[in-house]
Amino acid sequence: MNQQYTQVTASTANESAESELSKDTLFHLLGNRRRRWVIKYLTCEHRAELGELAEQVAAREQGIPVEQVTAQQRKRVYTSLQQTHLPALDEAGVIDFETARGTIEMTKKMQELDIYLEVVPERTIPWSMYYLGIGIVSCAVIVTTAIIDAWPFTAIPALGWALLISLTVTISGAIHTYRTRTMRLDRHKIPQEVQHRP
């Protein structure tokens, strides 16, 4: 009985380990801009035709509407996706790429990649650094208030400082949650550059 349980547990653990992407695989897949755009598009649409996907990626790379993508731009991306990027994603189990029909469908594994694609606009800092900054400032304020008995630290009581820090963290978390959700899978929130042609 114990031996059977041990074998089942080991088998389950092995399956779980195999179903997860290694860090090397994650970095490899996300290390290419075209693959990142494929992942972003499929997390919104879940499924696409190769020609459609090539147009969307080409439009995003050129910073133009899909309607303005030239045949040459589309062909260059199409070939690259077909020969290199989609096979790599398919081999990792992130997509199901039917080469004969030219259809691409995301799998559950793609969620592992999606969480690494939080966009950090230019001239902003990552949320992790922002929260680290809040933590450092909060600690500095608490220590300074405890040591120095002078204005402006005495102008606000200890409970006031605690409330201010709590509100800052709560509001920051709410904004972070909202911004993360707006970049996720709801159809009406898909960025304009990856919308289908009318």
Describe the structure.
By secondary structure, the chain is mainly α. It has two domains: 20-119, Arc Repressor Mutant, subunit A (Orthogonal Bundle), CATH 1.10.10; 127-182. The chain contains eight helices and three strands. The protein has helices at 2-19, 23-30, 33-45, 50-62, 71-91, 110-114, 127-147, 158-182; strands at residues 47-49, 95-98, 103-106. Strands 1-3-2 form a three-stranded antiparallel sheet. Helix 7 runs antiparallel to helix 8. The protein is elongated and about 75 Å long. Residues 1-18 and 184-198 have low confidence and may be disordered.
Query: Which architecture name of the largest domain does CATH use?
Result: Orthogonal Bundle
The best one-word shape is: elongated
Widest sheet: strand ordering: 1-3-2
Q: What CATH first level of the largest domain would be assigned?
A: Mainly Alpha
- Strand content bin: 5-15%
Tally the beta strands: 3
Low-confidence segments: 1-18, 184-198
N-to-C SSE string, H for helix and E for strand? HHHEHHEEHHH
- Count of DSSP-assigned helices: 8
Average pLDDT across residues? Answer: 76
Rg is 24 Å
Largest beta-sheet details: 3 strands, antiparallel
